[in-house]
Design the sequence.
């Protein structure tokens, strides 16, 4: 059924004209209008702070919902690295690492003074035909305040005619605003009260007593987007750069007028060149991406269509249920189904069959979307099981835990596959329920247990924001082994061999608290380590209740015993959990020995899944340093696996005891590999970034905590991803 | 412990980049290194020159129905065989065509309704099919549901008019067929789509067509090579 000497592959690119394969169809004149497009929405350009803006001043524009922007800018002795996230259409948050390189006196004792900033921007009013957009911004609102400023800004855009025939029309954007703090320092008018200095030398706390206080000044500017590539910008800046033009001589301020031009190099990358403050040349690079629009669209081998039983089970005898009496037949069917599942990268864990109903438990190591994995499993069942089986119950299993049960009728599967609205109507014909205990008669997948697997993986381990060297990283190889003696049981270990890195030379800890996390550089001195070695058990004491117990070496710094329970119904937005750990700190060499420090740490957790992927989590309890308090996390988890979230932890440790930063806070970013490479895989880049790593408010890292596994197959997730079911 | 060590040794020798034995999920660094290796291998692999297509070669080597599909945007061509033919509750017969490298196209009476295995799938489409009529039966509404946004779908609604451009002939690998040339002009979703069909003069099949499969894939040129 295939050409022996023709290649039937879409992946082979051939010269069409040479093969005479181009069709005679002329290009229709209407094509010049263009076919419909589903491009990412247009996005504003950014300023040197990495915020929607002109050259150095902000504008009122908001990035598209969910947009993530990274930017780098340099001018004078100033460098700024900013990561911004449009968390909601009306709210964006940014984290910035900025350096001031002095040419004169040192700043706060540093030749290059590095500072970490958090910003937030609130859109107060959306732009319409007749009124401008209005935005309120708080810049560096919780740091030591070097970049602290507040502003209210308005921006209005107007279409401009194309520069030449055939070019796209341009857009002119006018901006005016009022700034306080840094943005109220040039051409200022006296405002309400005086702006107090920053009281806490540790930084980190909200400086709300400063906001909108003291002198303020107007700023204004214009951006003209000539076409879809080029734009020019000009502005009047209200920033006098008092600190930088002082004895430190970071910058010379001769004029408040800044000009620049920017070029959209690729759809995601924009480059800018500027002339600032009458003295400095500046450059910027802005990279913007939107998690909803993958870098490479996911390409998955096409599924096999569902064979309708009406086509192949035409005899009444084919619909009988006698086969269900034979254990041998059931085993044959389970083998057959296992083979079908393997074609799609799935593993049959068990199959429970009676005459009309089949319950499949399977493992998914390939697809990020459980909706897609369920769809593939349903198709495999439709190919492998006798005609009399009408009800499919499909249960994805992870670490022996049944995450949720999808129940659907086979006739719906057959009827709907080619329905024009198949994706939208799936929800109305499937049920998602809790998973009960596995039936006694279920046939286990052949040869699954005991299972032994090994792996060699490269690893990277970064460390951020050391003032001497802001970015440090170790890299090497992990040699892993996993032994699963029975469903839900696991013994695993990893030996880590560093090949290169510079984390070891990092800052030594001066923490007043027990050094529960700040001895990282001491741990990093050893090149061959036992990263982890533990035994774990996962089980479901009741439907919707998940449990884990783990003992051994959990992570490079801690070992001990741990227990966790999670209550989470697949149809409930709320999950509740409890975790208790007795941990001992490991020796720096990370072999089998321990240090003297032992403690109990544990938390009660509440997880709340809100609409549109917003997620909130509260963990209250005792932390590693023996401090009591709570961690509040909010974030956005995209269906494709992107995650951006922020957290703060307040414990009974005082700001003085805690040290720099006053309390623990940070953010997490997780980028799925499938989003970047377009191939189905469950792996992802994840990193947690803290402005400062201290010892207060720290938790132990635990392999395979329960919530993330369970969350992925919740009803809400399956519903949001239902289009994937058919793909 | 010997098998354990052997597994490690074999694993390490096969690729220095990371590998695993067993059914564990792949680690991120390994995925990235593998992707780079795949890319390099693809760049290094010799370009395949397709032999000229002749009727004699087709008669000699092919059993059953095959179509040739070219993606206009990329110049990529493949030959697809019938994987499934069936009917459902809607008018028209569904045919699923499959390529050797796991791309499928679903058509209802010759009208493209779905693609799988290509980036930016056409998830489903509402097409103007009618029983007993190959190709488009009428103008009117059309709806394309496409993979889009965050694991979701995006729909494009279009209004179409159908024009009969009259009788003509098409030659497909040395065979000349008498056909009716139909043109479907659709507007909506901020753009314009023109689908064309060359339907056998007896109405038995669509010999050739040029159909839009969504913004990512663009137009497909489809020819029925064999029956």
Sequence:
């Amino acid at each position: 059924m295939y050409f022996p000497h023709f290649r039937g592959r879409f992946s082979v690119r051939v010269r069409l004209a040479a093969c005479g394969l181009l069709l005679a169809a002329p290009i229709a004149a209407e094509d010049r209008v263009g076919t419909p497009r589903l491009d990412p929405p247009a996005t504003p350009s950014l300023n040197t702070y990495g915020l929607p803006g002109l050259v150095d001043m902000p504008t009122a524009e908001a990035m598209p919902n969910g947009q993530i922007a990274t930017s780098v800018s340099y001018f004078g002795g100033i460098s700024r690295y900013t990561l911004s996230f449009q968390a909601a259409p009306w709210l964006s948050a940014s984290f910035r690492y900025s350096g001031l390189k002095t040419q004169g006196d040192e700043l706060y004792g540093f030749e290059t003074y590095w500072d970490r900033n958090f910003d937030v921007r609130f859109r107060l009013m959306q732009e319409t035909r007749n009124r401008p957009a209005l935005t309120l911004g708080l810049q560096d609102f919780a740091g030591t305040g070097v970049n602290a400023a507040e502003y209210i800004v308005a921006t209005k855009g107007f279409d401009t005619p194309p520069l030449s025939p055939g070019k796209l029309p341009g857009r002119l954007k006018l901006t005016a605003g009022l700034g306080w703090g840094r943005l109220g320092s040039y051409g200022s008018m006296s405002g309400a009260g005086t702006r107090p200095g920053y009281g806490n030398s540790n930084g980190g706390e909200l400086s709300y007593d400063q906001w909108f206080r003291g002198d303020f000044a107007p700023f204004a500017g214009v951006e003209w987007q000539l076409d879809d590539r080029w734009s020019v910008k000009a502005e009047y800046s209200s920033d006098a750069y008092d600190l930088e033009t002082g004895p430190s001589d970071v910058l010379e301020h001769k004029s408040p007028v800044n000009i620049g031009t920017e070029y959209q190099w690729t759809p995601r990358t924009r480059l800018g060149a500027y002339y600032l403050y009458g003295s400095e040349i500046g450059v910027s690079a802005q990279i913007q991406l939107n998690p909803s629009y993958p870098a490479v669209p996911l390409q998955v081998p096409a599924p096999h269509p569902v064979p309708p039983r009406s086509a192949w089970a035409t005899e009444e005898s084919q619909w009988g249920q006698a086969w269900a009496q034979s254990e041998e037949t059931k085993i044959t069917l389970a083998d057959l189904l296992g083979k079908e599942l393997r074609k799609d990268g799935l593993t049959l864990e068990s199959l429970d069959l009676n005459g009309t109903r089949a319950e499949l438990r399977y493992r998914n190591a390939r697809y990020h979307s459980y909706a897609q994995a369920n769809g593939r499993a349903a198709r495999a069942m439709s190919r492998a099981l006798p005609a009399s089986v009408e009800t499919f119950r499909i249960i994805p299993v992870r670490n022996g835990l049944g995450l949720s049960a999808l129940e659907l009728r086979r006739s719906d599967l057959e009827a709907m596959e080619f329905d024009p609205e198949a994706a939208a109507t799936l929800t109305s014909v499937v049920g998602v329920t809790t998973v009960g205990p596995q039936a006694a008669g279920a046939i286990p997948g052949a040869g699954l247990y005991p299972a032994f697997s090994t792996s060699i993986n490269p690893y990277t381990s970064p460390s951020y924001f050391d003032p001497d060297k802001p970015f440090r990283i170790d890299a090497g190889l992990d040699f892993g082994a996993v032994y699963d003696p029975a469903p839900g049981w696991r013994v695993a270990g990893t030996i880590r061999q560093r090949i290169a890195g510079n984390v070891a030379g990092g800052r030594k800890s001066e923490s007043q608290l027990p050094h529960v996390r700040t001895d990282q550089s001491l741990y990093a001195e050893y090149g061959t380590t036992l990263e982890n070695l533990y035994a774990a058990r996962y089980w479901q004491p009741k439907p919707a209740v998940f449990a884990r117990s783990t003992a051994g070496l959990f992570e490079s710094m801690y070992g001990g015993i741990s227990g966790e329970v999670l209550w989470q119904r697949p149809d409930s937005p709320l999950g509740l959990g409890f975790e208790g750990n007795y941990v001992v700190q490991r020796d720096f060499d990370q072999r089998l020995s321990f240090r003297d420090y032992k403690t109990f740490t544990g938390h009660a957790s509440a997880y709340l899944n809100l609409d549109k992927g917003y997620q909130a989590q509260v963990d209250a309890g005792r932390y590693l340093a023996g401090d009591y308090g709570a961690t509040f996390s909010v974030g956005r988890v995209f269906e494709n696996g992107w995650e951006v979230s922020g957290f703060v932890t307040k414990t009974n440790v005082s700001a003085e005891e805690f040290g720099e930063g006053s309390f623990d806070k940070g953010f997490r970013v997780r980028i799925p590999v499938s989003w970047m490479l377009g191939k189905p895989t469950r792996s992802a880049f994840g990193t947690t970034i803290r402005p400062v790593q201290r010892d207060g408010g720290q938790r132990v890292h635990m392999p395979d905590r329960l919530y993330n596994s369970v969350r992925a197959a919740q009803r809400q997730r399956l519903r949001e991803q239902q289009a994937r079911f058919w793909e | 412990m010997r098998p354990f060590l052997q597994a490690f040794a074999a694993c390490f020798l096969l690729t220095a980049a990371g590998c695993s034995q067993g059914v564990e999920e792949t680690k991120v660094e390994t995925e990235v290194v593998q992707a780079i290796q795949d890319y390099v291998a693809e760049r290094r692999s010799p370009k395949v020159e397709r032999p000229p297509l002749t009727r004699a070669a087709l008669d000699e080597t092919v059993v059953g129905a095959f179509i040739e599909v070219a993606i206009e945007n990329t110049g990529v061509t493949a030959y697809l065989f019938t994987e499934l033919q069936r009917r459902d509750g809607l008018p028209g017969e569904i045919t699923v065509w499959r390529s050797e490298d796991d791309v499928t196209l679903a058509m209802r009476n010759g009208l493209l309704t779905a693609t799988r295995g290509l980036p930016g799938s056409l998830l489903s489409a509402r097409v103007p099919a009618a029983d007993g009529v190959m190709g488009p039966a009428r103008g009117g509404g059309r709806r394309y549901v496409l993979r889009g946004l965050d694991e979701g779908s995006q729909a494009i609604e279009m209004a179409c008019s159908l024009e009969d451009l009259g009788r003509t002939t098409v030659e497909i690998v040395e065979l000349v067929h008498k056909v009716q040339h139909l043109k479907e002009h659709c507007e909506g979703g901020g753009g314009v789509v023109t689908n064309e069909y060359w339907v056998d003069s007896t109405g038995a099949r669509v010999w050739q067509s040029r159909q839009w499969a969504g913004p990512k894939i663009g137009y497909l040129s489809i020819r029925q090579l064999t029956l």
About this structure: DSSP finds three helices and 13 strands in chain B. Helices of chain B lie at 2-14, 28-44, 55-61. The longest strand of chain B covers residues 152-172.
